Amino acid sequence: MSDSAAAPTSTGIDNKKLIMWLFLASDCMFFGTLISTHLLYRKLYPTGFTDAEGHVRFVQNLFDLELTSFSTFILLMSSFLMALAVSAMHKGQIASFRRNVLGVIVFGLIFLGCQVYEFTHFYHKGLTIQNSVFGSTFYVLTGTHGTHVAIGILWLILLYFYSFTGKLRGHVGALDVEIAGLYWHFVDIVWIIIFTVVYLVEYLGPNGIWGSAVTTLAP
Amino acid sequence: MATAAHHAPVTDKTELPVERSDIGLIRPDRTTGLLDWLTTVDHKKIGILYGAFAMFFFLLGGVEALAIRTQLAKANNDFISAPMYNQMFTMHGTTMIFLGVMPLSAAFFNFLVPLQIGARDVAFPRLNAFSLWTFVFGAFALNVSWVFEFGHLQGWFNNYEWYGKLVYKDFAPANGWFSYAPLSGTFGQADAALHAQRFTGVGTDFWIIGIQILGVASLAASFNFIVTIFNMRAPGMTMMRLPVFTWMTLVTAFLIILAFPAITVALIELMFDRQFGANFFNPTNGGQPILWQHLFWIFGHPEVYILVLPAMGIVSEILPTFSRKALFGYPIIVFSGAVIGFLGFAVWSHHMFTTGLGPVPTAAFSLLTMAIAVPTGVKIFNWVGTIWGGQVRFTPPMVLSLGFIWMFMCGGFSGIMHSSAPADSQQQDTYFVVAHFHYVLLGGVLLGLMAGLYFWFPKIFGRMPNAAIAYVASALVIFGFNLAFGPMHYLGLTGMPRRTHTYQPGYGWEDWNFIATIGAYILGLGVFLAFANLVWTAWRGKRTETDPWDGRTLEWSLPSPVPAYNFAQTPIVATRDAWFEHKHGGARIGALADGGPEGVHMPSQSWMPLLASVGFLMIGLGLPMMSMGIPHLGWLVIAGLGVLFLGIWLWAIEGPGGYHLKTPSAKSVAPTPTASVHS
Amino acid sequence: MSAHAEPAIDANFLAEETRRYHHFITLALWLAVITGAEIVVIFLPLPVALILTLLTVMSVGKFFAVVLWFMHLIYDARLLFWLFIAGLGLACATFTALIALFSFDRVDTAWFS
């Protein structure tokens, strides 16, 4: 929370909003590095991974599209609720803000729950962080995104309870909610990209876009 | 937040009434001495702390350099062992870059940027304190590795069960400052006994977490400075009226926020390889060690400009002052700085020409690298144009600045040679490269930063450094530096590889190595003398007037030392070089009618940034020690995360607070208020 | 007079917020529809290149829809937009180049056999 949020600024942009956008610009490079690590290893090793029994497994057979689509939808809708929560704060409707932000928190927790389920499920199918490059890049990329979601949920929970102290109001209060919202939306747009380049492209062609050069099918 | 703002103004903060923050703790506003320095949010004090720590680490890195040079003074020397030599050159590079040059640049950012733009502080004063302490603790965690190395050499750990599990015993980082995988990473199939698969010892873990923490500090500071420069400018201080140093700070901060994420991710990936058996860089399981090189240099090349641009900004302030001329081609200098920063992202693979990128990428990166010479050359010509026809005064900062231009240009020439890929394949990993980057980073950056120290020291402490000692120190530094690094060009081209513990006689390297070692000692003496002169000055030096150099920018309009609130009245700026114009019959500086009887609003001091940084200290110590196999240290890491979140949370809810300081009467305030901006 | 001016500004502001509110609802529907289309399109018997193009267009569309409306960039200062684009553009350029650099050495197709 800025020590000078109320002071007029040279550009007319609030300090907190400017620093948040700078952070998001920086975070583009952060997720860009993670996503490109995943993609270039997919390109180099299109087949997948070997499970504990020594069977070659294809990524397409690992993924659960229903689950991922559901969690993608949930995260998109949480972003919608976040936009409504910010809108409510702008209008000074604190009760509406609380309802919406509670919705965001619940949806975020559902998303995290899906991710925990997905990780457990994949682990039982034989994908570990140690047994393949795919396992390393997949778990670290989606896990880092999940960490961002978890931090966002923590932030929103703290804001939710802070709103009961009566100090979350006026221009400064709306700004505090808005920058939390910016962070949340960013986490959402990163997932929009991950959903396409990590999940959906694996379904193109018999072995996924990366495996199109692979001649043998999975057992 | 409104409650705190209604106290009666005081002349000294120690007169403040006891005030509690929103979480019920007494604010550390009235503290003095050590507590004041620990909780300060004043950008000037934070700048001084940055500078003090940076100078300490400069000397530490210098001692490491002298150990390296002593070892290389003669063929087949055994002054230090080969493992110790590896740790020495790794920590020398890491210390000089991350704990010496970057924090010393940050010291100037902190002290000068708010003063140069006419602001009372940075945009986020507590975040600034957090950056400082996170840097300090990251640097501390990195150097704690030396304590373990010392204990290992003394045999302290021999009785412990975890000690026997370590394959390699280098406790301090030993992979070079870029820690190339797979040497820094892992090999072999995944196994429960992970520590058996690491090529190098726990020093690498200290390096990983240390650099990660230092990265957090740099990122937080850079976000803060971009917002400050965009948003906190005084009225009339348009972007194209900003002093060049502030412009270069802005470009540097952008480079940091866009370059550091790449190394952050690379470090996370390397950490996962080492701690959890992931395969990012593990060649046995299909990891590509070359990816580390790419990710490192995507960060590492902009890092070079992060190091050099602040020094260029400093020199761009000093040359006009001592030539009594406006900077020649101000917009071109600013534009060139921005272009250097932008192109800096497009040349990373020129560090990797010998890895076999293929002809097209090699040609492309070669061309882009040559293109960077253009804006750099433009700057050099503009600096020369600034001196041309000026009334030059050869003060110590001016001498060092002129040294900067010469030495940086020499480093630039050998840099152009590297940009040609066929030539580079001969020079890769030889002493020629060592000579090149020391000419750029030492002849360039260190001379620039020393010039800045001697230039602004009278403003920072109100005391003038001894000029005679400064001249002697400058001469020793420039002479010793050329004696040390000039011969390395020859050594490199005759084939002496860098990072070798020793060499055989008979290659024709003995004489030049011996001369280089003598030069290094002269250089070390010069730097020590220059720093000792400054420390003595800060403590006992001769008092000086507020504007001893006939300065050009707003900071010289203020008393020395600068009062806590900086500007008693916010200046209204009408031109570039506002203070010089104001003094010499140009457009005058106006003044806003703030800071009257109600006083100047000051942000409250806080413990919370320090508390959050302590969390990083716990993580920085816990993670490598956990990696050693010392039991229960994982809990220290988890507790560190907890302390970090606790600190940030309490910081968020304690409320910004604030109090009011009385300003002296308008008569003693430097910029004379005028009726109109243009008089 | 000035006491009455305050609610007038508020009313404009509220009208603007309400207008945005409706935009948000429309956008949320579109996001859901596009996500559904993405899941369908990967199973259509179309050339892979075409599907890939469609997927790219749809995810980039969703990306910028959230950035512009949910994150208010279309309403906010232009500077913020360009700052974000600087980071995004640099990331896209750098990592496209990185992946392209790796295309020169496709290592093998079944390294683990």
Task: Give a verbal description of the structure.
The complex is a heterotrimer of chains A (219), B (679) and C (113). With 219 residues, chain A is an all-alpha fold. In chain A, 69% of the residues lie in helices and 3% in strands. In chain A, strands 1-2 form a two-stranded antiparallel ribbon. In chain A, a hairpin with a 5-residue loop joins β1 and β2 (56-58). In chain A, α1 runs antiparallel to α5, α1 runs parallel beside α6 and α3 (65-90) runs antiparallel to α6. Chain B contains 17 helices and 6 strands. By secondary structure, chain B is mainly α. Chain B has a domain at 417-561. In chain B, α3 (82-116) crosses α7, α9 (359-387) runs antiparallel to α10 and α16 runs antiparallel to α17. The two termini of chain B are 40 Å apart. Chain C contains 3 helices and no strands. The chains are: A mainly alpha (219), B mainly alpha (679), C mainly alpha (113). Chains in contact: A-B, A-C, B-C. At the A-C interface, α1, α3 and α6 of A face α1, α2 and α3 of C.
Treating each run of at least 4 consecutive H or I residues as one helix, how many helices of chain A? 6
Secondary-structure element sequence of chain A?
Answer: HEEHHHHH
Approximately what portion of the residues of chain C adopt beta-strand conformation? under 5%
- Cα-atom radius of gyration of chain C: 22 Å
Second rung of CATH, namely the architecture of one domain in chain A: Up-down Bundle
CATH domain class of one domain in chain A:
Mainly Alpha
| CATH fourth-tier homologous superfamily of one domain in chain A | Cytochrome c oxidase, subunit III, four-helix bundle
List keywords for this structure.
heterotrimer, B: 679 residues, mainly alpha, two-stranded antiparallel ribbon, 17 helices, disordered C terminus, C: 113 residues, 3 helices, disordered N terminus
SSE inventory with pairings:
The complex is a heterotrimer of chains A (219), B (679) and C (113).
Chain A (H helix, E strand, L loop, with lengths): L14 H30 L3 E3 L5 E3 H4 L2 H26 L3 H31 L8 H30 L7 H30 L20
Chain B lengths: L32 H7 L3 H29 L10 H35 L8 H30 L48 H29 L12 H33 L12 H35 L6 H14 L15 H29 L8 H24 L1 H7 L3 H31 L1 E2 L2 H27 L16 H31 L1 E2 L27 E2 L5 H6 L6 E2 L8 E3 L5 H21 L4 H21 L5 E3 L18
Antiparallel strand pairs in B: 1-2, 3-4, 5-6
Chain C lengths: L1 H40 L6 H23 L7 H25 L11
Helix pairs in contact in C: 1-2
